[in-house]
Structures are given as C-alpha cells and as structure tokens.
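Q: I have two molecules that I believe assemble together. Could you output structure tokens for the complex as a whole instead of separate predictions?
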Amino acid sequence: MLWLIIVSMAVVTFAMRISFIATVKPHAIPEAIRGVLAYVAPAVLAAIVVPPILVRGDAVDLSPDNPRLIAAAVAFAIAWFTKSVVGSIVGGMATLWLAQWILGA
Amino acid sequence: MDLDSPKARFIAGVRAQAPALVGMLPFGVVVGVASAAAGLTFVEGMALSLLAFSGIVQLIAVQLHVSGAPYLIILLTAIVVSLRLLMYSASLAPHLGRLTWREKVLTGYLLTDHGYALGMIDVAHHPERRNRQWFVIGTGALACAAWNVSVAAGMAVGTQLPVSWGLDFAVPLSFLALLVPVLRDRPSWAAALAGGGVAIAAYAMPLRLGLITAVLAGVAAAALVRRWERR
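A: Yes, here they are, computed for all two components at once.
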C-alpha cells in the first residue's frame, strides 16, 4: 500500500512537470493564454505564502502581536528593497525568533 | 566562454538556485521529520523523496497515509496540489524551444517552484539567451541534491527538533522571497492579492481544494485588471 502511494506520487509529479515541456511546440500556445499564464506564478506563490503567515490555529490573525505577520512584513521589506533572497529569509527567521521572545508566544 | 552553451547555462542555474537553499534546507528537514513521525522507514522516506521530489506532495502523502486516508483521496489530493506544476510547465514551455528527449526528461524531473520562478526571471532579464532548459536543469540539480540530503537529515533526527524553533516558517519565507520579484505590474499584484485572499477564505475547503481555488481566482483577477488597463 505504501509503495503504491510512493510510485503514484512519482507518476503524478513527473507527469505534471513534463506535460507541456514534452508535448507543446512553443508557438502552439495562443497569445491570450500565454498572457494569462504569466500571472500564475504570483497567484500560486501568494496562495502558498499567505495562509501559514495569517492562520493561527483555526482563525485569521491580522493583529500586530502575530509574530509570523511581523516576520513576514520584515522579510517582504528586505526582499523588496535589497532583492536579496538570503537576506530576506535570514531576516525573517531572526525577526520571528525575536518577536516570539518579546511577545512570549 | 560562450554564455549560451549548455554548460554555462547549467552553472548559471546552479548559482541562481544557491541562495534559495537557505529556505529549502529547513523545509527538507521538516518533511524528513514528518516522514519519520508517520512511521516510514528510512528507505521508504527516501524513495518517496527521490521519486516524487516535491515537498508539498511528500508532506501530504505521509500525513494522509498516517491518518488512514483511502488511496484514491491521497491520489486526488496529490494531483490537485501538483496542478501548479502543470501550469509551470505550460508557462515555461514556450521559452524553452526545441528539446532533445534527454533534456525533456531531465527538465521534467527537476522542475521546481524555485526553478520555474528563476527561469521566468531569466526570461525577463535575458530574453535572447538560448539553452534555457539547461538553466532550469541547473537549478533543479542543486535543489534535488540539497533536498534529498536535508530530507535524509530530517529522517535521521526524527522528532527531536523543538517545535518552538518555528523551522516550518522557513517554507513560506522561501516562497515569499520568490513572490516579491514577480510583483512587477498591476495585474501581478492583483493575482497575488486575490490568490492570497482567497487562500485564506478557502483555507478550510476539503481535500486542499482551497489552493487551486485561490490560484484560479488570482489568475482571473490578473486577467480582469489587464483587460481594464488596456481599455
């Protein structure tokens, strides 16, 4: 059963990744669809990023004593102004630990 | 050296991927810990990691398996959360040109969230460069090596890491650092705001359908803003 799951997960991820890379010729995708696909990345990334920042337990926490919100705001600012991926992640984690320590959360 | 050669492009991809490891390594450890906690042996956990090579799919598979979910539910959930890889594939394909079968298989196995984002940044900054597949393969090769080492470390450590360290937060932080550079115009801001907002609103949807709903809402919002801007 577990090995069936393992093999199935491999088939699913590989099929999704190789799908269009293996089959579609570059110009076969209409311009209208290409234009929209350019916005898949911000939509997916935001949808992955936002819930772990704002959802605490079962509720949305937008208050300033949510340490993950503070850490994410600092990480966003660092990424925005310095364009540094490392600086953003390190700054975000450092802020999280500092905020958790100060807020006692 | 020819900057467009496969080797040069591969090295450029490895270099572009390197900073993202800061977020990826803790993510891998978290997934390894979760796999060990779900009762997978080292061989089973590493087989899943090497074959599926997707943190989100690995997490979901072990969590649902340990909770006794039926096989079809596990399969459907994996397909739903992996749909973004399909969209990445469709979005990236026009920028790759003609590939050999070996390049297709390598790109197909190694395409990650980070590799896609870096590939699209490469398209924006160096639209004229050839052999972009080798740039993407470079990002994925380093990611794959680092990923499997970190998952192995997580499985070895097991459940001894303190939860209060909040290492799981490195996961959204690593994706946040990728989100910022793609917020380049009004439609992309609309996509992110709608995607993030709906992800919150639809958080409790069954089978993690919330993620797909959020993505579709984000893309629709971007399309609307783009149309409105062009009027």
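A: One point stands out. Residues 20 and 72 of chain B are 34 Å apart (CA to CA).
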